[in-house]
Design goal:
Largest sheet: none
Structural class: mainly alpha
Number of strands: 0
Strand content: under 5%
Distance between the termini: 76 Å
Length: 591
């Protein structure tokens, strides 16, 4: 009977771990794969000794290094789901082993509660992998310390704490608190000597680190690499999990007595725990899944791959409200010469925030804002944004590629070669690095390249100080010296449309032919028709770019619909949105 019970318990335990791992894996690989895209693009692991040395400049750097190493495999969402789920499952297993060793009983509920809590935290795309990795390392070291306490009479865990602090930084406090609470719980002879020794050692280590080794602030030495930002602004919840783990040895000593009348078998408790665990994982996954984030990062992925037509089609099918999504979408419209045909198919900001980003020392802005300048030919400005982003966040895959491309376009091949050498030392960008390497010191190869050749041809020849607080001024400066920059011209017209400047748009009509525009763009035609019908002023159309009669007919229908509702904009809004929501006219009346 006991043998059968043991087999049932072992089967149920294995099933619990399998279900926990499977639930986590399914969620991350099929629903929240955008987490891996964000984290993989947020840092760059470089397989060089210099990169390793960079991460040895302060305690905890090795943990960050390990986190970046594992995160580089997030390039493949399947690998990312496996890595995250394995780390979470190992945390659950280690907590169970610790409690089992301390109490002599198989622990079920507490380990999975810890696992579910950390799973919840990991579902935020900003919660970096090294956090859970740091927790796992502390738990493993603590388990080894109590499991093999005989070695060195239990002093080895105490004596290696300074080294462990250097490896894992602020996360080592978890190990220290667990070790201390275990010594208090066990009440072993001369345990107080170990406690005093432990804390004297760690305090001396902090002092020496601050004064002689790393020259960091005390706060940074105590916390790094833990931070509010790297935990997805979930600091209170994460600290709660750390707090629970730190007192596990003390909690293990608390005994709950239950009347025989209410006692249940371990198998039944395990079965109930399994069912509840699956239900909680499902609820958390459903509640934490963010479709807006998934859509945004899918758009950003298509953008980095230069799949502009696919990006635009996706946004038409899934209308975005996120200003960064629309910003990238507008660049894609410009790159495909569709900006002033499809601009109002998407929700635009009247102040121009969806057209261009103003300079701001924030990573989200620096990482993306330079692409606007890259599109309109201000290659030096695009390089500056990428360089500042590198200074602020270190190397990232797309940031490094932008530095390479701008240096190649400008013919600065020596500098480009240095960046290419760095990219070649990555795991998954070597192929691209080799393609860039073929263009070094080879002007013909650059000029024949589909992207870089076009950018070199259209780059700004006359440099000037850019006005990042008002990007539109830069467009005017470009067009004042370069009358053939079509992309800058299209951005100018788009901005005039957002400002509803009909006179300004009409004044630009004679220039359309010079930019090789063979057919009047839809929104320009809509603005011109409104200008014409409302009789705002004189109009001189170009001979080759006449307005489609259908556009005139549609505006007439627009006005008739408005008149039908007594010229009441609020009452007519629903009907007008239905039939004219993607026109300049609807934008002009309702924005």
């Amino acid at each position: 009977m006991n043998r059968n019970t043991t087999k049932n318990d072992l089967f149920l335990t294995a099933l619990q771990y399998l279900l926990f791992f499977t639930g986590s894996f399914i969620y991350f690989v099929f629903f929240a794969d955008y987490i891996f895209f964000y984290q993989e693009k947020s840092s760059l692991f470089i397989s060089s000794s210099d990169f390793l040395l960079e991460n040895l400049h302060q305690p905890g750097g090795i943990l960050v290094y390990l986190g970046k190493f594992f995160s580089t495999f997030f390039y493949f969402p399947l690998a990312g789901a496996v890595i995250v789920s394995v780390i979470l499952s190992l945390i659950v297993l280690t907590v169970s082993k610790i409690l089992g060793f301390l109490t002599g009983k198989r622990a079920v509920i507490v380990p999975f509660l810890i696992g579910i809590l950390l799973f919840y935290l990991q579902t935020d795309y900003r919660f970096l992998l090294f956090n859970n990795l740091g927790v796992l390392l502390q738990l493993v070291l603590f388990y080894l310390s109590i499991r093999y306490v005989i070695f060195g009479r239990g002093y080895i865990p105490v004596l290696i704490t300074p080294v462990w602090y250097f490896v894992t930084g602020g996360f080592a406090w978890l190990f220290c608190f667990m070790l201390t609470s275990n010594l208090v719980f066990n009440k072993e002879r001369r345990g107080w000597v170990k406690i005093v020794t432990l804390w004297i050692l760690i305090l001396i280590t902090i002092y020496i680190s601050k004064e002689f080794l790393f020259f960091q602030t005390a706060e940074n030495l105590l916390k790094f690499p833990f931070s509010e930002l790297n935990t997805g602004e979930q600091q209170p919840l994460f600290l709660s999990a750390i707090g629970i783990l730190s007192i596990l040895p003390l909690a293990a000593g608390i005994k709950f007595s239950m009347s025989d009348k209410f006692s249940v078998s371990d198998f039944l408790k395990g079965l109930v725990t399994t069912i509840l665990m699956v239900m909680v994982l499902f609820i958390i996954g459903f509640q934490r899944f963010d479709v807006k984030n998934k859509q945004y990062f899918h758009v950003e992925k298509l953008f980095y791959q230069n799949k502009f037509d696919e990006l635009i089609a996706y946004n038409i099918s899934n209308p975005p409200n996120n200003s960064l999504t629309i910003f990238l979408n507008d660049i894609a419209l410009c790159e495909t010469d569709q900006m002033n045909d499809l601009l109002f198919h998407f929700r635009q900001s009247p102040d121009g925030k969806t057209l261009f980003l103003k300079w701001e020392m924030a990573w989200e802005v620096l990482q993306r804002g330079g692409y606007f300048y890259y599109t309109i030919g201000m290659v030096n400005e695009a390089h500056r944004w990428a360089y500042e982003n590198m200074v602020m966040k270190g190397h990232t895959p797309e940031g490094l590629k932008m530095l390479i491309k701008t240096e190649i376009i400008n013919g600065n091949y020596k500098m480009a070669a240095k960046y290419v050498a760095i990219l070649k030392q990555t795991f998954f960008y070597r192929r691209e690095a080799k393609q860039y390497e073929l263009m070094l010191f080879n002007n013909k190869a650059v000029e024949s390249h589909q992207e870089l050749g076009e950018k070199r041809h259209n780059r700004l020849e006359t440099d000037f100080f850019s006005i990042t607080e008002d990007p539109y001024i830069n467009i005017e400066k470009i067009l004042a010296g370069d009358t053939l920059n079509r992309k800058a011209f299209e951005y100018k017209i788009a901005f005039l449309l957002l400002k509803k400047d009909l006179k300004g748009i009409v004044a630009e009509l004679p220039k359309l032919d010079g930019y090789g525009i063979k057919k009047m763009p839809t929104h320009i035609a809509e603005a011109v028709v409104a200008y014409k019908v409302l009789n705002i002023g004189p109009l001189s159309e170009t001979e080759n770019l006449r307005i489609d009669p259908q556009t005139i007919l549609r505006f007439t229908q627009f006005l008739k619909t408005l008149k039908f509702y007594g010229n009441d904009l609020k009452t007519a809004q629903t009907e007008l949105r239905k039939n004219f929501g993607n026109t300049f006219w609807f934008y002009a009346f309702y924005q």
